[in-house]
Design a protein that fits this description.
heterodimer; A: about 120 residues; mainly beta; 6-stranded mixed β-sheet; 4-stranded antiparallel β-sheet; globular; B: about 120 residues; 11 strands; about 0% helix
């Protein structure tokens, strides 16, 4: 079964420093991977996806993610964090078993960027 | 939040009452989804629909029902059979390409349901 794991409940980083939010996946076949961000009491916003192609995927708001097949990881990164990046981040993988176009989400990582 | 609207933003009900949450999209997406979000558990899929007049159960469908009479609308009813209905409910939609593939899902702003 397809699954993703986000090993950190919370990540703290100083503004201006690089940030990384970790995600590892377990899939059969080629993975379709996604990152979403959620601000308090709001819906999820799509950031980026990996379907195929370059291992470094660029997305919205300066975020990027690196797909690493050997380590089964899809970590979200940003070279210089902003206080406004503070939010809840979800990694997701598309399910291929059982039909339909469903996503399985990780449990989320709370990012806190401090001055 | 794109072209997906959910209403109301906050909803309060007494235990034992059914309640229907609205989800409307103007993105011309074929597929629509309902998720439930609880603290520390991520999102869990309740129901999804790939096309009008068709829908399937997700991972936690017990105590919920849906309908898909129009492409734009996918209302969710939380019935009195749902044991822990208090949660944040999110609706999403996506394209459905030939062969069953789809791109990323787009989410509405959510409805926070409190049942006492």
């Amino acid at each position: 079964a397809q699954s993703v794991a986000q090993p950190e409940d919370q990540v703290n980083v100083a503004e201006g420093n690089p940030l990384t939010v970790k995600c590892t996946y377990s899939v059969s076949g080629n993975p379709y991977l996604f990152w979403y961000v959620q601000y308090p009491n709001r819906g999820l916003q799509f950031l980026l996806k990996y379907i195929t192609g370059d291992n470094l995927v660029k997305g919205s708001y300066g975020f990027e993610a690196e797909f690493n097949k050997s380590q089964t990881s899809f970590h979200l990164k940003k070279p210089s964090a902003l206080v406004s990046d503070s939010a809840l981040y979800f990694c997701a993988v598309r399910r291929l078993v059982g039909g339909g176009n469903k996503l399985t989400f990780g449990t989320g990582t709370q990012l806190k960027v401090e001055l | 939040d794109g072209g997906i609207t959910q209403s109301p933003k906050y909803l309060f009900r007494k235990e034992g009452q059914n309640v229907t949450l609205s989800c409307e999209q103007n993105l011309n997406h074929d597929a629509m989804y309902w998720y439930r979000q609880d603290p520390g558990q991520g999102l869990r899929l309740i129901y999804y629909s790939q096309i009008v007049n068709d829908f399937q159960k997700g991972d936690i469908a017990e105590g919920y029902s849906v309908s898909r009479e129009k492409k734009e609308s996918f209302p969710l009813t939380v019935t009195s059979a749902q044991k822990n209905p208090t949660a944040f409910y999110l609706c999403a939609s996506s394209y459905r390409l030939a062969g069953g593939d789809s791109y990323e899902q787009y989410f509405g702003p959510g409805t926070r349901l409190t049942v006492t």
